[in-house]
Amino acid sequence: MLEPRLRTMWLANAASAGAAVAVRTPRPVFAAEARRERREAIVASDLEVVTVTDHSAVITWTTRARNRAGRARPVPTDTEVRVGPADGRGAPRTLHFEGKRTAYHYAEIRNLEPGRAYRFEAYSDGRRAMPARTRVTRRSGTPESTGVFTTLTPPPGRLIRTLALTNDLHYGEPASGLFAGLFEGLRHQTDEYPEFMLQAVLEDLRLPDRGVDQLIVAGDMTDSGTAEQARGVRGASTAGARWAGTTSCAGETTTFGRPKSPTTGARCSIRATGSSNTSSAGCG
């Protein structure tokens, strides 16, 4: 028999140990709860309004989650964009929804009114996309930080032609440039990723509803300016097109007579303003 004092201490220690074991015992995780935890771990970021015209807007973002090592990895989710007039009282309504799951989201909103401000919200699996932590999209007054973009107002006069603008093809680049000029950026699964990007945008420009008459490429067309890379750009982007100039290196400008090179950026409509030698352009 233990003395009463020792017996009391032993019982207290046993109770404490039992409580600790009970606290550390994992409780069952149900499927719905597991899905909720995975959804909460997803981060929708890199929100960007990449193109605005007089009747449309293109919005992109990414979805990622961190693995056990703390590294961000792409996570496929759905794609939803809600849009509404900025001067309206109602909440923005869904104008774009894509159930096909992807980590890289692209939404083109069409049939908008010229010269009008619109509120917009982008979502993936219920998570609202936010701009990345850069000075470009998070700075005050940007569409990404305010949640409002304004469609262009077409310039007056007769439409002469529509231009597409782009730059930084980096044809032949094996990695995403240099970081601070010191070391290589992100490497991809294939060294030909600039070619894939080039072809994807070329296909988009060739769609009948784009109405692009001429494409201007401004600088950084190749990675290192070799003859092979220059031939690659020409072969990929200018079949049947007329070159107004040639370039391989940064700081140069090339004009194609037909829409045969990439753009995810501005679309300019040039209209006459009363003189055959004078024109104006509205770009987005």
Write the layout of secondary structure elements.
Layout: H1 4-24, H2 31-41, E1 43-52, E2 57-66, E3 72-74, E4 77-85, E5 93-102, E6 104-109, E7 117-124, E8 127-128, H3 135-138, H4 143-146, E9 148-150, E10 159-167, E11 178-179, E12 183-184, H5 193-205, E13 214-218, H6 227-237, E14 253-256, E15 267-272, E16 279-282
Parallel strand pairs: 10-13
Antiparallel strand pairs: 1-2, 2-3, 2-6, 4-5, 4-7, 7-8, 7-9, 10-15, 11-12, 13-14, 15-16
Detailed description of the structure:
- With 284 residues, the chain is α+β, with helices and mostly antiparallel strands.
- It has 2 domains: 41-150, Immunoglobulin-like (Sandwich); 159-282, no CATH class.
- The protein has helices at 4-24, 31-41, 135-138, 143-146, 193-205, 227-237; strands at residues 43-52, 57-66, 72-74, 77-85, 93-102, 104-109, 117-124, 127-128, 148-150, 159-167, 178-179, 183-184, 214-218, 253-256, 267-272, 279-282.
- Strands 4, 5, 7, 8 and 9 form a 5-stranded antiparallel beta sheet that branches. Strands 14-13-10-15-16 form a 5-stranded mixed beta sheet, with no helix packed on it.
- β1 (43-52) and β2 form a beta hairpin.
- The longest helix is centred in the first third of the chain and has 21 residues, at 4-24.
- The chain starts with a helix and ends with a strand.
